[in-house]
Amino acid sequence: MTSKFNKITKLSKNLAKALLNDKLPKSLERSDLFDLSDKDYILDQLTNKESIQKRTELVYTIQKTADWKSLKTKIDLPVRRLYWKYTAVASAFILISLTFFFYTSKKNIEEPIIAKREIVPGTDKAFLTLEDGSHIELEKGKSVQTKNAYSNGEKITYNNTRKEKKESVYNYLTIPRGGQFFITLADDTKVWLNSESQLKYPVRFSDKADRKVELIYGEAYFDVSPSSLHRGAKFKVIHNAQEIEVLGTEFNMKAYQNEDFVYTTLVEGKVAVNVEDTSYDLAPNQQAGLRVSNKTISIQTIDVYHEIAWKNGVFNFKNKSLMNIMRVLARWYEIDVVFDDQALKPMIFSGTLNKKLSIRDVLETITTANGISYELNNKKVLLKINQNNHQNSKP
After folding, report:
1. Closest by alpha carbon to 304, among 281, 285, 319, 328?
2. 10 Å Cβ neighbour count for 159?
3. Structure pTM?
4. Rounded CA separation 112/309 (Å)
């Protein structure tokens, strides 16, 4: 039975490579481990979007080493056919989830160098700046009460009041590297803030004027309270490069300081992206990409799931360069990334990773079977081309 487990392991790897490179899973078709109905069942489970999401969540609730031993033990025991099908599929699920990243060609693997000190994933944390300039640290396990809001350490909620004041009073919510936070504004608009982001907003909104907030930098997902609930008052998100006018909708905005593009992705509803004197209307599943340096804008239809997965606890990369992927990971894990060879930066990857993974698991997943190795020293990651593979590829 040990050989059968090894066959499943090998088959799972080959199947993952095929699916992630949009190729037919011929290894499954040729396999003698399953009958035709089993093969159809496995393929359906590995390509169905709901199953993929469930599998992603499952992987991070287990300890991989212990689970593999458990699976192997179960396969070694005599089992009924129905239970055998479940075990085989489960093993494929786990392996594929742990090997989501594969490049287009097979390459040798070099064991990575692992730092003794574990780098943990990001968590819920933020810094709140009040109207008087004072700063409050928000973090898990710490409750905070201000005169306008309450935080349980994982989110902050502002009082839903409509009292008028002569001057608008603003707070700032700053998310550091390795952090994320959720805020409910005074008009009941919900905002998810990603790592390295800052939002400026009033502690209360006036029904006599537009509701305005400012994404100073970073990434935020907005679920906007409809204008119909606020006497027709529009909701606007200001950024130094553009202004978004909202009627009541859900959208994502990404505007990081070290990137030349500002991306606005509409999930549902309607928004208008205003750049200088021109307005661009977006329909659901459309994304506006604004090049900040020259104020040019392009609009394309996309799969929004890849853009908003971060707020649901998942990194979902589709045809992204290694450089862009490492930018995202650097913010979440508070690491500095160095490329030993510039040829690594444009390498294209697709895959899904849970944000609860350790940086060790993430780096192993990305580098496995891709001719890449890495060194991890405290907060610094050095990515380099596998020297053994590089030498073997020379003519």
Report:
1. 285
2. 13
3. 0.70
4. 28
Distance CA 212, CA 162 (A): 15
Q: Given phi > 0 = left and psi -120 to 50 = alpha, else beta, which region is 83?
A: alpha
Proportion of the chain in helix, strand, coil states, percent, rounded to 5: 30, 35, 35
* 112 closest CA partner among 393, 381, 390: 381
Question: Cβ neighbours of residue 2 under 8 Å, at least 6 residues apart?
Answer: 72, 76
Taking the C-alpha atoms of residue 246 and residue 236, their distance in angstroms, rounded to an integer, is 6
Q: Is the pLDDT of residue 51 over 90?
A: no
Instruction: Identify the residue with better confidence: 96 or 212.
Output: 212
As a whole number of angstroms, the distance between CA 320 and CA 316 comes to 10
Would the pLDDT of 163 be above 80?
no
For residue 373, count CB atoms less than 10 angstroms from its CB and return exposed for 0-12, middle for 13-18, buried for 19 or more. buried
DSSP secondary structure letter of residue 312: G
Terminal-to-terminal C-alpha distance of the chain:
42
What is the secondary structure of 159-183 as a DSSP string? -------SS--EEEEEE-TTEEEEE
Q: In which element (H, E) is residue 20 found?
A: helix 2-20
Sequence-separated (6 or more) residues with CB below 8 Å from residue 367:
109, 112, 373, 374, 383
